[in-house]
C-alpha cells in the first residue's frame, strides 16, 4: 500500500509494477492485451454464476476486513451456496462447470 501511495502522482513503468506485484504480467501490445482479456472473460463466463458472484463479493468484503473475517465469510458463503440450484444441477449431470 505504501508503494501505491508513493506512486499516485508519479508515473509507474510496467517492469516496476510487475516487480512489486501490482500486475501479474506485462503484455507486449494492445492487441495481445485484448486477446488475453477476452480469453479470461470466456473462462469466467464458463464458470457457475454463483461462484463468480461469490468470489467477487468475498474479495470486496475482504478488502475492508481482517483475514480471519474474510475466511469466515467465505466459509459462510460456501455453506449457504451449496444449497443452491447450481450444485444440484451440476451434481445431477444436467450441467457441468469447469473447475474453479
What does this structure look like?
It is a single chain. This protein has 100 residues and is mostly helical. The chain is built from 6 helices and no strands. The model has no long low-confidence stretch (mean pLDDT 83). The chain is flat.
Topology:
Elements: H1 2-7, H2 14-20, H3 30-45, H4 49-63, H5 67-81, H6 85-91
Shape: flat
Count of β-strands: 0
Number of helices: 6
Largest sheet: none
Counting helices, strands and paired strands, the structural category is mainly alpha
What low-confidence regions span 5 or more consecutive residues with pLDDT below 50? none
| Proportion of residues in extended strands | under 5%
What's the Cα radius of gyration?
18 Å
Q: What is the mean predicted local confidence, pLDDT?
A: 83
Residue share in helix: 55-70%
The string of secondary-structure elements, in order, is: HHHHHH
* Distance separating the two termini: 28 Å
Task: Write out key terms for the chains shown.
single chain; 100 residues; mainly alpha; 0% strand; flat
Give the gist of this structure.
The chain is mainly alpha-helical and 100 residues long.
